[in-house]
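Objective 1b: paired records.
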Amino acid sequence: MTINGQRLNGIGVRYKGNASFNLMRGSLKRNMKIKLDWTNDDQSYKSVETLNLNAGGLDPSKLRDAFSYWLFQQAGVPAPRTTFAELTLTIPGRFEKETLGLFTIVEQVNKSFLNDRFGSKKGLLMKPEGIASVEFHGDDWRFYAPLYRPDDTPTAVQTRRVMDFAHLVNHGNEQEFRDSIASYFDVDGFLRFIAVNTLIVNLDTLLAMPQNYYLHLGRDTNKFVFFPWDLDISFAGWPLGGKPADQMNLSLIHPHSSDEHNLIDRLFAIEPIKMKYDKIIRELVDGLFSREQLMKKFDELEKTVRDARKRDTTAVKARNERGYPAPFGFQPPGIREFIDKRSNSIERQLNGTETGYIFKHGRPGGRLGHLANGNFGRGRLAMHIMIQADINEDQWVTKEELHTMLGEWFDSMDREKAGKINKASFIKSLPDAFFQNSRKPTGRIPEPYVAEGLFTLADSDKDGIVTKKDLTTSLNRLLEKKNPDENAKLNQRSMMIGIRSLIRH
């Protein structure tokens, strides 16, 4: 790779992204992550080792990432820096300096980022997927790790801090929450984080989805800080967020989806905190987010990329690629249009003449999919078994591991030590099996159809009674479907498929 004349050899390149990657199939220009130090630890470009190259496939303006990150920074929220780059590609015999087009380079969130923003490389950095409101999953860190996704192996003290924070948000009584919440995280910083997401209508984050943000536990402060990631469909550009006209009218007082969001709801229920949030909104609207200031910055950014964007468009057309994929027929508003209409909506809401749009999920489970709306369906069960049974943590579950876990379930459920359990006792005591010697999450654990399904599998002779042997062998069919061999084992995907085939909804 050559950057401004500097040759870099032995780099690592991979595609990245979910929807932004999948919707651009057939296009040569895709999101990429480039590791400049892949084969040489000492290789970098101006001390930068990792480049995030965002193609802007879902952003016709190519400015949403850069503009949004800049606004977060100016509002006092830690956020990655950005710049622009034009890329060409050479593959001998196929392409010779083929113009890929205009990319936004986004700073990697790593130890260098933490040191620059927080004054220390230490602390716990997490990039949650499946967590929107610091959901509580008991006192076993294994159930948190795949959801909170820590950057490094956390210490026992750090994992306890995460679990206690989640417990306070979801189970602390009103007085406990009021008295303790500020000791757990930067409340003012979080209010600014929410305010900016609200003003730029960035719904594809914890406002409506359990993703696209970072959570950092400071070493010295022992407090959590939220900051943004993946902003290419901000400015009302999320295809699943409703009509653009509705998104541009997003509510200031209830910016999160209609699904329960304990952290935001409980904070806003505290009058001094809600007043502080309102003050932050008005401060930003009167300054950084005024129509005039936004237009001025947008004009500056557009001037910077105008010629490069024309070359980008020309290259895409020359390769007969479709460009913006318009998922579900969605067409995002232009940023200039957004600034005008969003400013009008904000003015009406602040004047009290309207309340704004509240996004409502159409799918079952809403914001958290299979982890919400009842909490514990088949998907959650499969994940739970996979984590709880995987004793050696090799990402596989053997028959021996499965039998050991189910035997422990039975022992925790058989409180009378009778060696057998009837249906009512089985269903009532399942939470004790899932969360042994632990504080338990709220909600139905598991969903009734899951509890019924598990009992039916174990009660193979239909006598209404389950023994330890019945339960330990009840899921053997998962392994038999996989492979009748004694060495058969299950990974997460086969566990999910197997549970769905055995327990019907």
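Objective 1b, second protein:
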Amino acid sequence: MALSQLRSPDGRVQRTPAVPNPEDPSAAPGVPRFVEGTAGPGAVSGGPAPTTAGGPLPAGVDAASPADPNVCSTEEEETRKEQFRARTFSAPDFRPSAGYGKFDAYYWPASALMAAVVKMKFNYVQADNTPPFPRLFAMWRAGQNIQRFFWTDAEQTRFAEDYRRRIIDRWSFAHTFRSTKPCWPFLARPYVTPWVVEDASDAHFEVTVHKSAGPGIDYSSGFRARNPGTAGWRGTGNLYSSDVREEPNFNSPQVATAERQRLDRAIAAALASPILFEKDRSELRPPYDERLRRLAAALNAKNPSDPAIPIVVTGSASAEGDVTRNQELSEARAEAVALVLRRAGVPQPLVVSGSGPVGVPDDAANRKVEIATDPSFEGGYASNRYSVAEHEFGHAIGLPDEYVNLSTGDLGAKQTAFVNLAAAAGVAPPDQWGDSTSSQMSAGVDVLPRHYLTLWEALGQMTSPDITRNEWSIG
């Protein structure tokens, strides 16, 4: 089935403009209907298609301005840039370089809009715990509800639409690709969506969707996305009807522990504790000011939904001299350190105090501030969100699990390839593989810059040689 005849979740054919030849400079940058008519945060609304003549653009999409002052130095390159702006690019059946996942990619430079579409065939099956027929019949005769084991048509339609909406809302427009090529100031904002097709031969993935007997979430889903690159390859997957529900308290203590341990590693790596001071002074001095800046950068690298672990900043003084003066000095030293962190905008709460004189008189090692995390926080943390559908979709576009740490085998090779790809794109890989974090590909909901790496590859393939892969940044 052609892209122009993709089917909606209710089975109706939705016709979209045929994708123009990417080599044709006159190709019109029309937006397919799988991008139109969507709603929700960050989604593109219906309306007139973008044009190179400055017509209206879909809501929430920034256009690359033709009046940008960054004009190329030669008329020939300026002409080539404008031809690029007018084109439509596509990469059907794109296979990420790590060898996992498959999707169709499109790019409309005039609209600063990219699309990544995973075509899926859903096969609905009864609940895994459906009793054998004699038992089922007896339950029915006894007036018990046996419908919970089976799908209705309405439930199938609702699941497909809920799944599609959750993926769009979570994965679309999380970050923007920006061209770093001089005088080529283009943007690409990714709209990411699954699309349910009727014929398995048209699908990137054939997915078995199990009815959940409930009442809880199954957590039994998975995608087999290793793509050998053979023609016609189609991945498989298993989803459950409960996958489109969100768990508001999923592995919360483990996520808090992992974040505290990340901060502990950051404090040690920055050599930020203890911070030493001169006798009777509370001013920071080299090299400790730079160490605190390095620490602040690590604190600010917190994932958006990871908990803000309290940072304990404790000042002290050596034991000689007046006790009151030493108490004040210890507090002033702690405040001096906290001020640097506050000015750097760290998101963690700071617990600042002075412990007064400690140890023996004239011990320079006690003229200090110590920085530590609060280990008591994680026991009471219960706010980590997670939903299965969005996590498993990440595998369809080629992303690895981050909650496991493997150095060998196929998955180890996948993680290594992912780290290398992140380095090429200039984005951070997981701080430590195997941790439970708020990352979407670990135990949470955050779509981070690294989760757009396979889309970044697809965009670079489409726009090369005009704009190569490494001339796109993720931000």
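The first helix runs from residue 75 to 86. DSSP finds nine helices and 13 strands in the chain.
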